[in-house]
Amino acid sequence: MTRPPGRLLTRFQRLPVVGRLVLAVALAMTLVLTGAAGLVYWRVEIALDGQLDEDLTAYQHTLDRAVRSGQDLPAGPNGSLRQVLDTHGRILRSSAAVRAQPLLTPAESAAAAHGAVVRRDIGALLPITTGTLRLRAERVTVGGQPRIVVAAVQRGHRDEALRELLAQLAFASGLTLLAASYVGYRTARAALRPVERYRLGAAALAAGADASPGLRLEVPTDRDDEITRLGHTLNRMLDRLAASAAREHQFIADASHELRTPLTLMRAELDVALHRPRTAEELTGTLRAVDAEARRLVTLANALLDLEQLGSGERIRRVPTALDRLLDDTCAQYRTAAVRDSRTLTVTYDQATVRVDPRWLEPAVGTLLDNALRHGRGAITLDARARDGRLCLTVSDEGPGFPPEFLPHAFDRFSRAEASRTTPGAGLGLALVAAVAASHDGSARAENIPPGATGTTGVTGASVVLDLPC
User: Fold this and answer.
1) Which pTM value belongs to this model?
2) Which of 164, 158, 156, 173 is nearest to 46 (CA)?
3) Structural domain range at position 257
């Protein structure tokens, strides 16, 4: 019963990769060896047949001359046969071995009588038989009477040579196929051994990722082939998975740490309110306190979610944006706050169009202005310059600046300077600014303005710079 091609293909696809490679090599080599063997056999057969035909033709011509001259039929090569027939197929003269047995069939006799040259092989190459012949018959005229002269020579040596060639080709092809399959198997195993090692390593790392998050696959550094690049790709994937897990752990830790305080305060306020009867004024105060903590929770949750969204690798959407409109719209609300605090907010910018994501850049600039209003003093300056494909945004004030020990940690989550701990905030503003810069393939830095840099002796200040490609 023949299997459907689809089922065979399914079974082939279920084989291991090594098995499929070896089978493919074996099939390819079988086709190549069969073609090569067929070509060799064909060329040798042509050569042997050509030699046999030359001998048969020469013997035929000898018989023709003897029949025309009335001489006895000469003996030909060893094992050869000869006959002379009339046009009706009756044997007139013959070799002793086939004295009463005509070598031609009636149809062949008739064809030869009409002038055709008849050629035919008697016996097959396989299976092995005796008495294999190649005969040739043609019409000759003797004394005005047509006669058919038949010459036949033995094919034994030719057939034996071809059978020996077939055996040698089969033996050599079989050995070559076995050797090619073995080499293909060893090569496939050697090529896939690193893949299996990577798989085992990745499985071990996955099983012990929590205990050893920094472990990576061992990849040779002195090679640059496909398997090595696969190892580097897997290591990069492991790095991203580790970074994702670290962000997840950090998010959970940050959320649990920062959400605990407002929730505890809310619970305390509610417990006090429920402990004994309270007046309307006291209940109103409790509700206002709970509302303030709820707002703080919402602000904190939004900031954490924004940071997680940026840190998860979400692709920003850069669009052509007019720099003047972006900054004017962002600074509008902060100008009012600055006037209320008797401070000035000066905005300078280039008339340029930049490719940024305003969804994220606007809140980042707003965060810097809000920090300058809440933690700084004096005039606030926002300067934006677009030069050579980069946008440099600087927000500075004339306050006391950052504490030196705080500068290295200014963009860490929940990092707050001692002087700012009494003001509202969760310490996520600069972390969000740094995340926005990183998502634009840029950077953010915080620095203090040294005395005299603003033109006024003894005045310092703080400055935060966003450097983005645009």
Assistant:
1) 0.51
2) 158
3) 226-311
